[in-house]
Amino acid sequence: EGDYEYQIKTGGSDELSELGREFNNLTQRLKNTEELRRRFVSDASHELKTPLASIRLLSDSIVNSDNMDGETMREFVTDIGNEAERLSRTTEKLLSLSKMDSGIGLSSDRLDLKHITEKTMHLLSPLAKEYHVNISTELERGCCILGSEDLVYRIIFNLAENGIKYNMPGGFVRIKLFRDSENVSLIVEDSGIGIPDEDLPHIFSRFYRVDKARSRDAGGSGLGLSIVYDAVRLHGGSVNVEKRESGGSRFVVIFPACPEEKPE
Fold first, then answer.
1. Distance, CA of 152 to CA of 40 (rounded, Å)
2. Which residue from 106, 93, 104 is spatially nearest to 206, judged by alpha carbons?
3. Distance, CA of 243 to CA of 70 (rounded, Å)
4. Coil, helix or strand for 254?
5. CA distances (Å), 191 to each of 48, 75, 162, 248, in order?
6. What is the pLDDT of residues 153-197, one digit of tens each?
7. Cα(229)–Cα(74) distance, rounded to whole angstroms?
8. Which of 31, 138, 155, 213: CA 20 to 30 A from 124?
9. Does the structure show a pLDDT above 60 at 212?
10. Distance between CA atoms of 91 and 117, rounded to whole angstroms?
11. In terms of Cα–Cα distance, which of 241, 226, 234 is closest to 44?
12. For residues 184 and 176, what is the distance between their CA atoms, to the nearest angstrom?
């Protein structure tokens, strides 16, 4: 009946006692899953409600104003477009998380991470120029993995984009890529604002923001690092974050490497 608080009283070590303990473990897992689902729905609703409220307020202001000048009208319409774009980005990220949760879209293509990283950095160069942040790369050849190019692109893009947006003018983002016999390592480090110690354990949680006010100003939804975490996990890899001694953050992603192709 959905009452996950109910627990069977067990004693002894026979089959029925073992079954009772398994039942209690199952109900506890169901309770935890239900709590996560409710929190996710609540967070998602709040995240979508904020830009919708802004759009409603701005549109009502336009409709109820009889003498709004053209410049103010254009400013309001621009703000509505920005909020709609933010809403679109959030829904796209939610759909990405949903697809990864269900395992949809994960292919096993042979991917050259050096090539994907170079393409990603090329796309991010205008943003880095806007924020006055220098991007540098140190990419080894032969760093190949099996997986989805779209998801790997998202991993690299989200990590590098965060490094740019949460940085300071004159700062840097460095990307390193190398492999050993078993793994390919991707390191993205920056000279930015860093992550407080108390936030480090939660940084990959969905909708979690370190600096809520600055995240909203930068267009963050609190979903980018969740996408990174889930995408890396789907590729059989791991991702960790640590603070740099001189300031900023360092993300270390490790993928299982493809066997090196032998010449025919």
1. 24
2. 93
3. 49
4. strand
5. 31, 34, 11, 4
6. 989 999 999 999 999 999 999 999 999 889 999 999 999 888 888
7. 40
8. 213
9. no
10. 25
11. 226
12. 11
Q: Contact, 120 vs 157, CB < 8 A?
A: yes
Task: Determine contact, residues 153/184, Cβ cutoff 8 Å.
Answer: no
- Alpha carbon of 132 to those of 120, 165, 190, 198, 235: distances in Å? 18, 10, 13, 29, 33
Round to whole Å and give the CA distance between 146 and 51: 38
Q: Which amino acid is at 231?
A: A
Whole-number pLDDT of residue 211: 62
Beta-carbon count within 10 A of 108 CB: 10
Integer-rounded Cα radius of gyration of the chain: 23
Asked if 126 and 164 touch (Cβ cutoff 8 Å), the reply is no
Length of the chain: 264
Position with higher pLDDT, 85 vs 222: 85
Q: Helices (DSSP H) in 103-186: which residue ranges?
A: 113-131, 149-165
Q: CB within 8 A of 102, min separation 6: which ones?
A: none
Return the ∠ at Cα 196 (arms to 194 and 202), rounded to 5°: 105
> What CA–CA distance (Å, rounded) separates 101 from 232?
12
Query: DSSP labels for 44-99?
Result: HHHHHHHHHHHHHHHHHHHHH-SS--HHHHHHHHHHHHHHHHHHHHHHHHHHHHHH
The model's pTM is: 0.68
Residue 21 C-beta-side C-alpha neighbours within 13 Å? 8
Q: Which residue, chain included where needed, has tokens 């933010």? A: 86
Within 10 angstroms of residue 58's Cβ, the number of other Cβ atoms is 18
CB atoms inside a 10 Å sphere around CB 86: 20
Examine the pLDDT at 108 and tell me if it is beyond 50. Answer: yes
